[in-house]
Specification:
It is built from two helices and no strands. The chain is mainly alpha-helical. It has one domain. The chain is elongated and about 55 Å long. Keywords: Membrane, Transmembrane, Transmembrane helix.
Length: 52
């Protein structure tokens, strides 16, 4: 799958690396600012403990 995405990116090696980095940063930003805040109230991650 990554090879397929890499082949679809335009330009030479430098442009492809830059475009891939921008796309990865965009995906990370969408996850950080949209997906994670939306899902956090729906799952309780603060109830961690050991024992009965």
């Amino acid at each position: 799958m990554y090879g397929w995405i890499w082949r679809l990116l335009p330009g030479n090696l430098a442009v492809r690396v830059f475009t891939a980095a921008v796309l990865a940063a965009l995906v990370a930003a969408v996850l950080w600012y949209v997906v994670f805040p939306w899902i956090e109230p729906r799952i309780s991650l603060d109830l961690a403990g050991v024992g009965p």
